[in-house]
Write a structure and sequence with these properties.
Helix content: over 70%
Shape: flat
CATH architecture of the largest domain: Up-down Bundle
Oligomer: single chain
CATH class of the largest domain: Mainly Alpha
Number of helices: 17
CATH topology of the largest domain: Rhopdopsin 7-helix transmembrane proteins
Length: about 450
């Protein structure tokens, strides 16, 4: 086999993986019909959930009614609180899903993502109370049937989407079994919402193990694909998806932790129960990161450098967490010392001093953590920054043009790693002369 044949085969393989997986022409009418059907069921589902929320708000159970009375809310306020955020979630999912389909109507993965997001938009937001779920399970079939369709095309196919993203192939091959399990798991959730939504006894362990297998297997499949299969562009798309999922998990964990820390548990009142329900409802809105990350990954991932966004997110998350720990530690320690010395209670001056100390620590702590992250995870970028900083010092102190030219060539070669480097100097008489030319050994472009 000739070298040209091998190169041609490799090029065709790479281009096939980079190319858009188009829907065959004979299936286009059916794909459009299914997209329209899911879009209509999503609208009907959202309208049905909104109608049931209005009815539920007009005839609230005693527990929620007492909680509203203690908080000073009205039934209308309860309804509009949920209706506002339900509409926000629906519009976000539906608009991004529609935009993806309009931009790439013939791309199989874009079509799949569009249907997934539109189905999620109709069914993902509703009052998270046991009473409302019980009311929904007894609603007319006209309301429940579109919801079941949306649930199957959203949660049911989420595992398949995570296994196929971003090029529409099951990589690795065992990921198709994770996708099949995800569909069966979601189907059981749709048929038995009360048992899966609030599992008890041994069934709780079964549900948790199933969820762990589904999402853990999907995440591991994406990591394996990223390390062993994806091209450079596909890796950027995968980063966007994983970034969005990480934000969802992180915010849900933070909000859930805050509920347990700040809501009283010793004296549980109807208002406490109601606040917990409202907080869980708001935590569910963190799933809005899903359409945003998928939309950017499919359509606009070239416009933003995801590596910079990840670096900043990790840096500021660590900084904020450390500063919160330091802040509360300083406040508690100083308050105890002050109380021991003076015999009095807390003092506002201690809080002011702690706040000023945290403000002074923010910038140096952020720079230190950023430096550690760059050294550990972005070594190439960190080395390039060090080279540029060294060159800036050389330019400031060096006056020999030959040494400067040589140093410039070295900087370009180390930071950009081109095939060759040429420096053109303009002479006093207007002519251009080649001041230096070196060839790099790296094969990078």
């Amino acid at each position: 086999m000739s070298q040209s044949t091998v190169v041609s085969g490799l090029s065709s393989a790479v281009s096939a993986r980079e190319s858009v997986a188009a829907i065959p022409a004979k299936w286009l009418p059916w794909s459009r019909a299914l997209w329209i059907f899911i879009a209509l069921t999503s609208i009907v589902t959202f309208g049905g959930l909104l109608y049931l929320t209005r009815q539920f708000s007009d005839q609230l159970p005693p527990r929620i009614a007492d909680g509203l009375s203690q908080l000073g809310w009205t039934n209308d306020g309860y309804f509009w609180f949920h209706a506002t955020f339900m509409a926000l979630s629906f519009v976000c999912y539906f608009a991004i899903g529609t935009f993806i389909y309009l931009v790439r109507p013939n791309d199989r993965m874009a079509w799949f993502a569009s249907i997934l997001l539109i189905a999620f938009g109709g069914e993902i937001a509703y009052p998270l109370t046991a009473e409302f779920i019980g009311k929904f399970t007894t609603a007319p079939l006209f309301f429940r049937a579109p919801y079941l369709v949306n649930n199957l095309f959203s949660w049911g196919f989420l595992g398949a989407f995570l296994a196929l993203f971003p090029d529409g192939r099951f990589v690795p091959r065992w990921s198709r079994f994770v996708a099949l399990f995800g569909f069966c798991f979601s189907f059981g959730f749709s048929i038995f919402p009360s048992q899966f939504g609030a599992p008890e006894g041994p069934f709780f362990a079964v549900v948790m193990a199933g969820a762990l297998f589904l999402f853990g297997g999907s995440l591991y499949a994406q990591i394996w694909r990223y390390r062993h299969y994806s091209t450079r562009l596909q890796k950027q798309q995968t980063k966007w998806l994983i970034y969005g999922l990480a934000l969802i998990v992180g915010f849900v964990f933070v909000i859930t932790t805050a509920i347990y820390l700040f809501l009283p548990t010793q004296q549980v009142t109807p208002a406490t129960y109601l606040l917990a329900d409202l907080a869980y409802f708001l935590a569910n809105l963190t799933f809005l990161f899903l359409p945003l990350s998928i939309g950017i990954a499919i359509v606009r991932y070239r416009l933003w450098d995801i590596d910079i966004i990840i670096r900043k997110t990790v840096t500021y998350t660590i900084v904020v967490a450390l500063l919160l720990i330091v802040y509360f530690s300083i406040v508690i320690l100083l308050q105890q010392i002050f109380a021991t010395v003076t015999g009095l209670g807390g003092n506002e001056i201690i809080t002011v001093i702690s706040t000023l100390a945290i403000a002074a620590l923010f910038v140096p702590l952020r720079n230190k953590i950023q430096d550690v992250i760059d050294k550990r995870f972005y070594r190439k970028k960190y080395d390039a920054q060090q080279v540029l900083q060294k060159f800036a010092e050389t330019v400031r102190d060096e006056t020999d043009i030959d040494k400067l030219t040589t140093e410039l060539v070295n900087v370009v070669q180390e930071t950009m790693q081109p095939k060759s480097v040429s420096v053109w100097l303009k002479a006093d008489d207007g002519r251009q002369t080649t001041g230096n030319r070196q060839h790099a050994t790296d094969d990078g472009g």
